[in-house]
Amino acid sequence: MAEDPFSGLFLLLWIFMIFFYPRMALMQIVWKLEESVKNLEDMSRKSRKIVLSHISGKPSEKARNAVDRMVEFFAVEPVSLDPYGLVPKLEQIVNAEEEKIKYTVEEITPGMDAEKRANILMGVAGAMSVNQIAKIVKHFLVTIKKTKNIQLAMILQMQLPMVERIAKAMFKGTEYLAAGQPVGDSIGPLIAAKMIVNAKPKRTDHDIVTAGVNYRGKKLIVMKASGPGGRLGRLGRATEDIIKSHKITRIITIDAAAKLEGEKTGSVAEGVGVAMGGIGVERAQIENVALRNRIAMDNIVVKMSQEEAITAMPSAVKHSVHNVMEAFDRLLERTKKGGHVLVIGVGNTSGVGNSAKDLKTTLETIDKNARKEEAEKRKRREESRKFWHRVFGNGEEEE
Predict the structure, then answer these.
(1) Where are the beta strands (DSSP E) in the chain?
(2) Which residue, 325, 343, 358, sits at the end of a domain?
(3) Which of the residues 20, 44, 51, 349 has the least number of beta carbons within 10 Å of its own beta carbon?
(4) Domain range for residue 324?
């Protein structure tokens, strides 16, 4: 019986695939990673240019070198082997980092308005994040090319869509923050400013403004980071100072919160505890002072994605203000008369002034940016539709 002439060919092909397929797959993954690293590094360079463009139309060599130094700046976290006293150590490191970058910004922007400097500071923070992502992905790419480790390559390839999504959001966020425009995370300060109404806010030493307000028969002290420059403020220390000088019966924090996939942007939820992101220094300070003084802690959060929190505030988030105020009214009903309720608008106050009279421009900017974002989404959908029409259609553009 004659042998099948294809059996030998199939055997050779099988042996070839056993030895060479992993290498071919690795080459394909590396090619994809190289393209991604190139795009990430390009975003890093552009983010620096965005910051420089807000410093000067023709930035000097000194300014360019300073921005390059700032995006490479890092902070070493304190030793955590003995957790006792860790929060003060973290606070010292965070404050030192902020002061260092603030000093560098002031050095290269002599005579610039303090609010614009605050925006540049936030823009630098965004550029630092984009640069760090690009460096980490490149590190793993070079390691994969050196070791020919296909397992590591596959892990990085699977994580890449999420990494690129975060990097693109940080890049867009750099543009909005450096320009001092409202982002999703500004919803807490925006509601605080709305509650201050036309009262004259008092600025403290912690980049914070506070104002006493009478609301529905209750005495409120409303607190937010000082705007309209991009600031977070030292809410923990400011809270400690207020509790020393006022009888506080309840603390209510209002903040943005990361939504789960499937949840609606702008949906509102109520909870207990301190709603506040970051590494936890500010939250720990508020929790400790509330525990010592037996103060109830409630929170109201507005849901949004991580991208929406650091890019232009969506219309759905802006329209959540009414629902937040309804939730706030329900919390006040459970608060006994006597003493003050401390309301903290948590978040980046970029583009948000310090009272309701300052919000007209803010709301107009939010609507303008929302229309711009929606137009870009429609454009991307149309480009995608045309692409798939060319692939599966007759290959011709529709008239």
Answers:
(1) 202-203, 208-215, 218-225, 248-258, 268-272, 296-304, 340-345
(2) 358
(3) 20
(4) 184-358
- Domain count across the chain: 2
**Predicted confidence (pLDDT) per residue in 116-155, tens digit:** 999 999 999 999 999 999 999 999 999 999 998 888 999 9
pLDDT in tens, 202-219: 888 889 999 999 988 889
The per-residue b/e assignment along 64-102, b for 16 or more CB within 10 angstroms, e otherwise, is eebbeebbeeeeeeeeeeeeeebbeebbebbeeebeebe
**Averaged pLDDT, 275-304:** 93
Residues 189 and 152 in one domain: no
Is residue 136 located within the same domain as residue 207? no
Tokens of 119: 């925006």
Residue 149 burial (CB < 10 Å; 0-12/13-18/19+)? middle
Whether residue 173 is predicted with pLDDT greater than 60 in this model: the reply is yes
8-state DSSP, 204: -
Please tell me the pTM assigned to this model.
0.86
One domain, residues 204 and 344: yes
